[in-house]
Every structure is written in structure tokens, then in C-alpha cells.
């Protein structure tokens, strides 16, 4: 990691890829299933030095707020922070969904989740609307592979959708951690890449997903409540202990990030490897994961690429993880498939167009646990994210957002239990489990935890109508079936248990 500062000073001009036809960015795309992935040159004809390698590092359930770079006082992430400071750090990056299968589907295909049929559901199936940017890269000369968690959980992903698997090498860590040795498996992948082809590798880090260590909260002793807890969570032993376990796992992730970058440096590969570090959705706590509030969909995102970036920048523009796939394809000199709704970020990364701007990005949600409501019914919602505003549309406001009472299947109920009596604490329980109106509107600078809904206040009327019209347009153009029909389309898709038995019942979060 010490070499990063030296390398950044030698930033090169953008490679030819950004000037090639078809690499200017994805649009709202059609739905005919066609894709143009014709390479700019035939595989193997473009020198590896000109076609970058790609390393995509994705954590599992980490909100953007919880890094040192983001200013969170209770966690230490020096390796992430160093890369973010030397590269391009996106202050307002959003997952396409607050649940892992849908979010990963959107990342791989570069599309809104409502275009992806059963691939938008936890334990759904890989649908005919899905494809993987890794497959497109492999078809055009890239050596592809992965370790850790890939797409899913879900059913029937096609062979090779992430490239060759590297899962065999393990290490000893506490029981709440995955035992997969991500760095060792990446090293094995690099050892096997003996030709001149560029590579693209997916490192799917399982942490900080639950279960979490739950026996210590000492790191918060010197902090006041407002320095580490969001307003919608009570200060209880359960919350504090699980939060410390969550942060400890983020610090282990950071050590893995540091070792991975060191490995690239040792192999003289870092300078021409486009590194992306992000998470699939927000923290596994109440009103975060499985919710379209900021702690559920705002995720860390940095891009580091010595050969092609104008680094040392914090970018306030809103970005989406659907942008990853078109950006990788553009950097590889490939056309962006018309289905992709994400946009090519290369002009912004390279500094060729620092005025690149987008007013809003979108996220969605259908269902997490199958049995949260009868017969797999969804709580279908869409959210529009701007730098200062959040607009949410709950398509079925008569339904319970985190599952039917009294179980509230998706609510992390232990977050609201008083330590001594076990009684549920208000107003904290209500913030999460109560039914939500059709529309929600929040002004983020004055309401950072989205507790004051302005949708039905006179002061929010004009902004509400403006954002509602924008959402109507986007959902229509991108053919959202729930928006177009008003029906619970996604509850009709089959649910697959881990044993691949269709419709067999629920799984755990």
C-alpha cells in the first residue's frame, strides 16, 4: 500500500476505449433480449497493457456510512480510506436493491431489478432477462474467475457466469466469519492466468453479513450515542453488541483489501487494474437492509485505476451499481448492450468530463423472505435518489413492509427489545414495522435518517410532484411491470429453497 502515492503521481491519459463507438454510456434500453457485444478488436489482438484488468470486490451488507473515509468514528478502515483518497470516491452511490440477489443481479446485468423477472427475488431463478458482464468479457478475450459469494442466493445460474471458481483455499477465523481465504484464492487465479490475456475477477466477500459476534461493545465506551447510532435504533445491549460485531467484520474486510492490493503490486499488475470496491446493500439492522432508506441502499463505492483515472477526487454525483457493468465493458473497448440501464462512468473516472452529471438514480425492492407475507406477496417499492432528496413509492401500502405481525419476519425484532424486560421499545419499533403510505419524501440534509415524511406536507408538494413525474417516466421507459399493470407481478414467480425444490417454503435472511 505504501506505493499508492507514488503510482498516483504517474496517472496516464485515458485509453482509447472511451473514444470508441458504443462506449458512451448505457441508455434505458429495450427489452427484446438482443445484445450487441461485438469487440472493438478480435479477442487477443489488443495488447493487455491497453485493455485493463478488472477486480471487483463486493462486501455483503455494508452501508456507506461505515468506513473511516465516510467519517464514522467507531471503525478503522485504513486500506479502504487510502484507496478512496488516491482514487475516485463516490459519496452518493446506491445499490439497485436492499437485498442481495436482486442487487447482484443488477450489478451483473447493468439493469434495474424490475427488468429481471425472478432474478429480482431472493431464492428466485436466473431468468431469461439476465446476463453477466463477466460472460461478455470472457467471450471477448478476458480470463475470468471468482471467489467467495457470487450471484444469489438463487437457482440455476448458468455455468461459468462469473468465470472459473476459486473456492478451495480456506483459513481459520471466528465462527461468524466465512472461512474462505479470498486473497489466497485470488492468488491461485493469478497463478493460473499464464497467457497475455487481461483478467476480470469477482471477489465476493461474505462479511459483514449476519450472524455477527454478540458479546462486546467496548469500542463505543468513549463515544456519545449520536456519534455511532442512527436515530431510529435504541441503545440496547443487542444493538451495541451486534454493531460492534458488524464493525469488526468490516475491519477484517479492510485487512483483506490491503492484502489484495499488495498482491497486485507484487505482481506489477496494480497500475493497469481497474479496482472497484463496494457492497451489495446496507447493514443487516432495522430500517437498513430490506429498506430503501439510505442505510439500506447507499453503499461504499471507490474506483482505483492508475493507468486511466484522474484520482484523488470525491465525487458527489449520484451513481448506481448498475453503472459497474457498462463501465467495465466500455473500458474493455466493447459495446454496451442496449438492455443496460446503467451508465458508463469512464468520462467521470478519467477526468475527461468532470462535468458529467446525473440528477437521480433508482432502486427497487420486491421481497426478501418468502414467508414474510402470505403466499410470497411482495412489498413492491421503488425509490428515487438525488443528492438532497429521497422519494419512495410503496405500491401496496395496505401491506406490512417488514412482514406481517406479530413475527415481522424481516424487521430484526431483537433490535427493539428492552434489555431487562424484553418489551418492545417505541417509537423505534414503529419506525420500522408500521405500514407506510403510498408516497414518502425526505429532505436528506435536514433529515439524515428519514423520519420526517414530507409527502403530505404543504412544503413538500412541489418537490413531490416533480419527483413523482420523473419516476413515472423512468418506470414507463424501462417497462416496470408493476408500474404498468398495478399488479403484484413478482409474487407469481417460483420460490426455490437451497435444496432447489420449487415452492418448498422459506429460507432465512
Describe this structure in words.
The protein has two domains: 330 residues, Alkaline Phosphatase, subunit A; 129 residues, Arylsulfatase, C-terminal domain, CATH 3.30.1120. The longest helix has 30 residues. It has 509 residues and is α/β, with parallel strands linked by helices. The C terminus is likely disordered. The chain has 13 helices and 14 strands. An eight-stranded mixed beta sheet has the order 6-4-7-1-8-9-2-10, sandwiched between helices. It is globular and about 60 Å long.
Note the topology:
Elements: H1 4-8, E1 53-59, H2 78-86, E2 88-94, H3 100-109, E3 124-125, H4 133-139, E4 143-148, E5 154-155, E6 164-165, H5 182-192, E7 199-204, H6 225-228, H7 237-266, E8 273-279, H8 294-297, E9 301-304, E10 313-320, H9 324-331, H10 346-350, E11 361-365, E12 381-385, E13 389-394, H11 428-433, E14 439-443, H12 461-477, H13 481-485
Parallel strand pairs: 1-7, 1-8, 2-10, 3-5, 4-6, 4-7
Antiparallel strand pairs: 2-9, 8-9, 11-12, 12-13, 13-14
Amino acid at each position: 500500500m505504501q506505493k499508492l502515492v507514488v503510482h498516483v503521481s504517474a496517472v496516464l491519459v485515458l485509453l482509447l476505449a472511451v473514444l470508441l463507438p458504443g462506449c458512451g454510456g448505457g441508455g434505458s434500453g429495450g427489452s427484446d433480449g438482443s445484445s450487441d457485444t461485438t469487440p472493438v478488436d478480435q479477442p487477443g489482438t489488443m495488447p493487455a497493457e491497453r485493455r485493463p484488468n478488472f477486480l471487483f470486490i463486493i462486501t455483503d451488507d455494508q452501508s456507506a456510512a461505515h468506513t473511516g473515509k465516510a467519517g464514522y468514528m467507531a471503525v478503522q478502515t485504513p486500506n479502504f480510506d487510502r484507496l478512496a483518497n488516491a482514487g475516485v470516491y463516490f459519496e452518493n452511490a446506491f445499490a439497485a436493491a436492499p437485498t442481495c440477489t436482486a442487487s447482484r443481479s443488477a450489478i451483473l446485468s447493468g439493469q434495474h431489478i424490475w427488468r429481471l423477472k425472478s432474478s429480482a427475488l431472493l431464492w428466485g431463478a436466473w431468468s431469461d432477462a439476465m446476463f453477466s458482464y463477466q460472460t461478455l468479457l470472457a467471450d471477448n478475450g478476458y480470463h475470468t474467475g471468482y471467489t467467495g459469494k457470487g450471484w444469489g442466493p438463487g437457482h440455476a445460474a448458468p455455468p461459468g457466469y462469473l468465470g472459473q471458481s476459486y473456492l478451495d483455499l480456506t483459513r481459520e477465523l471466528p465462527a461468524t466469519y466465512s472461512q474462505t481465504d479470498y486473497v489466497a484464492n485470488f492468488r491461485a487465479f493469478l497463478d493460473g492466468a499464464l497467457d497475455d490475456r487481461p483478467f476480470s475477477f469477482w471477489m465476493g466477500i461474505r462479511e459483514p453479513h449476519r450472524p455477527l459476534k454478540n458479546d462486546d461493545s467496548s469500542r463505543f465506551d468513549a463515544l456519545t450515542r449520536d456519534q455511532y447510532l442512527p436515530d431510529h435504533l435504541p441503545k440496547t445491549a443487542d444493538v451495541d453488541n451486534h454493531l460492534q460485531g458488524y464493525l469488526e467484520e468490516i475491519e477484517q474486510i479492510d485487512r483483506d483489501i490491503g492484502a489484495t492490493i499488495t498482491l497486485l503490486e507484487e505482481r506489477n499488475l496494480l497500475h493497469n487494474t481497474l479496482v472497484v470496491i463496494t457492497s451489495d446493500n446496507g447493514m443487516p439492522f432495522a430500517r437498513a437492509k430490506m429498506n430503501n432508506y439510505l442505510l439500506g441502499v447507499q453503499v461504499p463505492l471507490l474506483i482505483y485505476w492508475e493507468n486511466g483515472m484522474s484520482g484523488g477526487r470525491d465525487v458527489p454525483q449520484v451513481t448506481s451499481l448498475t453503472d459497474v457493468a457498462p463501465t467495465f465493458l466500455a473500458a474493455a473497448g466493447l459495446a454496451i448492450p442496449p438492455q443496460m440501464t446503467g451508465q458508463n462512468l469512464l468520462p467521470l473516472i478519467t477526468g475527461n468530463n468532470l462535468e458529467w452529471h446525473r440528477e437521480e438514480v433508482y432502486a427497487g425492492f420486491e421481497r426478501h423472505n418468502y414467508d414474510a407475507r402470505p403466499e410470497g406477496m411482495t412489498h413492491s417499492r421503488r425509490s428515487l435518489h438525488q443528492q438532497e432528496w429521497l422519494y419512495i413509492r410503496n405500491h401496496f401500502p395496505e401491506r406490512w413492509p417488514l412482514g406481517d405481525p406479530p413475527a415481522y419476519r424481516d424487521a430484526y425484532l431483537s433490535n427493539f427489545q428492552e434489555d431487562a424486560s424484553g418489551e418492545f421499545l417505541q417509537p423505534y419499533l414503529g419506525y420500522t414495522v408500521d405500514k407506510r403510505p403510498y408516497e414518502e419524501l425526505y429532505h436528506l440534509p435536514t433529515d439524515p435518517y428519514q423520519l420526517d415524511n414530507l409527502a403530505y406536507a404543504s412544503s413538500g408538494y412541489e418537490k413531490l410532484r416533480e419527483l413523482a413525474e420523473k419516476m413515472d417516466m423512468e418506470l414507463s421507459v424501462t417497462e416496470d411491470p408493476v408500474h404498468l399493470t398495478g399488479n403484484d407481478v413478482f409474487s407469481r414467480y417460483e420460490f426455490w429453497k437451497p435444496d432447489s425444490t420449487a415452492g418448498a417454503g422459506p429460507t432465512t435472511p
